[in-house]
Amino acid sequence: MLARPAGYAGAAIAALWAVRQMGRLYSSTEPFGPELMNVARNLGIFILPAFVLLLAGPFRTWFDRFAPLYPLVLGAGVFNIYVQDDALAAGLPLIVLVYPFLVIFSLAYLLRARVLQA
Q1: β-sheet bridge partners, residue 59
Q2: CA–CA gap between residue 112 and residue 77 (Å, rounded)
Q3: 5-25: buried (b, 16+ CB within 10 Å) or exposed (e) per residue?
Q4: Is there a contact between 89 and 50 (Cβ–Cβ < 8 Å)?
Q5: For residues 35 and 86, what is the distance between their CA atoms, to the nearest angstrom?
Q6: How far apart are CA 57 and CA 100, in angstroms?
Q7: pLDDT at residue 43 above 70?
Q8: Do the Cβ atoms of 109 and 48 come closer than 8 Å?
Q9: pLDDT digits over 48-61, tens only?
Q10: Contact criterion met (CB below 8 Å) for 63 and 113
């Protein structure tokens, strides 16, 4: 019940972040440098749980209650990027907390959360 709205909300946050980053890259002097690959990698990690939530089908009730954690953690990580002035203070929580959460969250939903179909 909560998985689809959480997937759409997380995908919207990831897409808005990617659009903002692409706009920033396009206005720089070297738009297609190595920073473009960084944006693509981050977008892939950010949107992975949205694909799992939207495409994996119905989930068990227990797992469905934790689906809103995805947009909350992703939103907090993106918000932290824009609030912090120091690059280390902005990037370190993203790498240490948000990336592992998103990957583990995706794997948990993908591997264990499916409803057995009879």
Answers
A1: 114
A2: 25
A3: ebbebbbebbeebbeebeeeb
A4: no
A5: 18
A6: 23
A7: yes
A8: no
A9: 999 998 887 677 77
A10: yes
Whether pLDDT at 116 is above 60? no
Q: Which residue has the tokens 């495409």?
A: 55
> Tokens 């993908």 — which residue?
110
| Distance separating alpha carbons of residues 49 and 103, to the nearest angstrom | 8
Strand partners, 114: 59
Burial of 74 (0-12, 13-18, 19+ CB in 10 A): buried
- The DSSP symbol for 117 reads P
| 81 SS3 class | helix
From CA 36, how far away is CA 38, in angstroms rounded?
A: 5
Show the beta-strand stretches assigned E in the chain.
none
